[in-house]
Amino acid sequence: MYKNKKISLVIPARNEEKLIKPTLKSIPGVIDKIYVIDDGSTDNMAEAVKKQAQEDSRVELISNEENVGPGGSIIKGYLKSSDEGYDIAVVIGGDNQMPIEDVGNFLDPLIEEDYDYTKGNRFLVEENVFEDMPNIRLLGNSIISLLTKIASGHYKLFDFVDGYTAITKRAIDTLNWNKAWKKYGYPMDFLIRLNAYGFNTKDIPRKAIYLEGERQSQIKGLMYALQVSPMLIKGFFWRLFKRYFYRDFHPLFFLYLFGILFMVLGVLWGLYLIYFQITGVGVSGPRAVIDAILLIVGFQSFWFGMLFDMYENNI
Predict the structure, then answer these.
(1) Is the same domain home to 114 and 218?
(2) Backbone angles phi, psi at 62, to 5 degrees
């Protein structure tokens, strides 16, 4: 119990036999229930969890019959938490990489302020993240975060791949989790869906933990990018239609769409003119002006759409 709220903890884990025990032993007393979602592990992690459950009655093991992905495991934990009446569900990984002792920082905005979702941001604690996070992950994280800002509308958030989160029962009960992304990349999809329904989110500074010699992240860079990018594009358009057309109309809906349309036409027309120039046909002044107008109008329209989007999500 924390400030008269019942708190559950959801831990999606796969093949974390070695690290799940220290993760569970570090969980403070403010957590009332601990759901460990075993996502098709092939090691002895389930036995390690069962052994810990004998020492800590809060621990409950939930096993997926097959590997569904971390997003799917978290959703299962969310629904279980809501069904059993917990007010807030916190999520951490099973790799002992997230400082659960800081959980109060994630809970307070949900209890005392107008927020329904909080997430970790390792970049707000500069003394360790820039030194400890591998450079390739640091670059990838930054690029994905910038793309997700546009897709999700959460322009003031960063470090979107961070899995340390907390969510209210109200948000869990509102979203349609059947259509949510189940694999790696789920944090971005969840944020897109939260924004579409008008839920407020907040970044929480938290330190990054990297244990020397331990494999912690199971994300493969190239495959991750190939899977996540189409999801972000699809999620961007879904959010526009859901929030700014169906739920509550806003002109930025057309600013975004016309901006994209004109920029695409400008690029295609520009390539067409380049082909003409290469083949010796030549490019006339009026044709070049048309291309410039398409690109400028498209960029300005998209830019104003972003500005309105930022204003709508300013809290």
Answers:
(1) yes
(2) -120, 120
